[in-house]
Write a structure and sequence with these properties.
four-stranded antiparallel β-sheet; globular; single chain; 4 strands; alpha+beta
Length: 90
C-alpha cells in the first residue's frame, strides 16, 4: 500500500494542482511509514489535546512546510458551539 501511496496518490494531487488534507495517527503505523509519508508531503500540521490545563486546550502547529516561512509554535484553537474552529487570539 505504501508504494501505491507514494507513487500514485501523492503525485496525483500535484498533477491536478489540488490540496489534500490527510490524517495520520501516531502509534498506529511504524516510524518508517510515518517518515515516508511525512517526507512525501509538502506540509505537516500537528494537532494536540492538552489536558494539563483546565479546561483542556486544543492546539495546532505547523511542523514543516516546504519553501515557505512559518511560525512553528503551538497555537490554541477555539471551538464554538456550532463546531466552527478558529485560532484563539493570544
Amino acid at each position: 500500500m505504501m508504494e501505491v501511496e507514494l507513487t500514485r496518490f501523492i503525485p496525483s494531487f500535484k498533477f491536478r494542482k489540488s490540496t489534500a488534507i490527510r490524517a495520520i495517527m501516531k502509534d498506529v503505523h511504524s516510524n518508517w511509514v510515518l517518515q515516508q509519508l511525512e517526507g512525501a508531503h509538502d506540509g505537516i500540521l500537528d494537532f494536540k489535546l492538552d489536558e494539563t490545563s483546565d479546561p483542556a486546550q486544543n492546539l495546532i502547529r505547523i511542523r514543516s512546510l516546504r519553501n515557505v516561512g512559518f511560525d512553528g509554535r503551538w497555537h490554541k484553537l477555539k471551538i464554538s458551539e456550532n463546531f466552527e474552529i478558529t485560532l484563539e487570539n493570544e
